[in-house]
């Protein structure tokens, strides 16, 4: 849907399913930075907004049904229906607030504590997403995640 | 201006000066998550939006002149002047895009590379902010930052 180096020309709204955004680090490892499940929007906003090549990839994690809008169509929508500004204001405000909390957890919690936090707060999400992607989101190896899970069960 | 446990009742716009947002981690160390210089807004959006106690502190880093708006006044402003929705949509969109890139640097760059990136891209910012706060933003000790700087100069 989006690969590094492309301009992100679409903004995606998830009707059913799940998307993820990731990049490939210097070691060649995929690092997931965001997921979008039902009723979330996802794009690379910097690329979408400024029409510059993206530094991210976006792909579906499971069978996914999307609405998609192009940058020009979204501009047109906002121009002809200014009331939609309010809708998108809320969307970005919520996404920004979520990113702030994410930052706090990255710096404030150990990787293991971050996993337990995620598991306690969003159990359905953790159940639903393949474990190797949860590991990629938390920034550790699938092996280390298995270890933590085993430790918790025992 | 804001302490952990308080509800963030104001949204701040920096006319001149600089604010920072931080939290205190389990080891008692201040971790800075965001700065706001001229023409940026800053609050704890989660607390401001949902009127819940904040997990952050906000304070001025230098002598700062601000505009401040309360949550109720901002709601009123948006209600009576819906055109302002567009303005705030851009504000949050920009802040969200910046947070996405920040996340990429946190995961994708070593702490040292992150410092050099910041220094290359925002030299005036790095000059302006006290070094111990740059260290607090990058997530390492002031001593380690001095070391990196010394290494670069030599």
CATH superfamily of the domain at 1-86 in chain A: Jelly Rolls
CATH class of the domain at 1-86 in chain A: Mainly Beta
Low-confidence stretches of chain A: none
Strand arrangement within the widest β-sheet of chain A reads 4-1-6
Radius of gyration of chain A: 17 Å
Query: How would the global form of chain A be characterised?
Result: globular
Round the mean pLDDT of chain A to the nearest integer and report it: 92
Give the beta-strand count of chain A: 6
Query: Helical segment tally of chain A?
Result: 7
User: End-to-end span of chain A in angstroms?
Assistant: 41 Å
Characterise this structure:
Two copies of one chain form a homodimer. Chain A has helices spanning 45-50, 71-80, 84-108, 111-121, 123-128, 131-138, 142-153; strands spanning 10-16, 19-24, 30-36, 41-42, 57-60, 65-70. Chain A has a domain at 1-86: Jelly Rolls (Sandwich). Chain A is an alpha+beta fold and 154 residues long. Chain A contains seven helices and six strands. Helix content of chain A is 51%, strand content 21%. The termini of chain A are far apart. Chain A binds chain B through residues 21, 23, 25-26, 31, 33-34, 44-46, 49, 55-56, 78, 82-83, 85-86, 88-89, 92-93, 95-97, 99-104, 106-108, 139, and chain B through 21, 23, 25-26, 31, 33-34, 44-46, 49, 55-56, 78, 82-83, 85-86, 88-89, 92-93, 95-97, 99-104, 106-108, 139.
Write the layout of secondary structure elements.
Two copies of one chain form a homodimer.
Chain A: E1 10-16, E2 19-24, E3 30-36, E4 41-42, H1 45-50, E5 57-60, E6 65-70, H2 71-80, H3 84-108, H4 111-121, H5 123-128, H6 131-138, H7 142-153
Antiparallel strand pairs in A: 1-4, 1-6, 2-3, 2-5
Helix pairs in contact in A: 6-7
């Amino acid at each position: 849907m989006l690969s590094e180096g492309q301009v992100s020309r679409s903004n995606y709204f998830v009707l059913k399913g799940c998307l993820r955004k990731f990049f490939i680090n210097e070691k060649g490892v995929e690092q997931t930075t965001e997921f979008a499940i039902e009723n979330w929007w996802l794009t690379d906003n910097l690329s979408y907004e400024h029409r510059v090549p993206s530094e991210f990839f976006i792909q579906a994690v499971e069978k996914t049904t999307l609405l998609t809008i192009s940058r020009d169509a979204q501009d047109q929508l906002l121009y002809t229906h200014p009331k939609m500004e309010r809708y998108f204001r809320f969307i970005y405000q919520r996404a920004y607030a979520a990113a702030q909390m994410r930052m706090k957890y990255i710096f404030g919690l150990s990787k293991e504590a971050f996993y337990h936090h995620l598991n306690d707060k969003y159990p359905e999400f953790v159940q639903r997403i393949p474990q190797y992607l949860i590991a990629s989101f938390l920034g550790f190896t699938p092996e280390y995640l298995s270890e933590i899970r085993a430790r918790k069960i025992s």
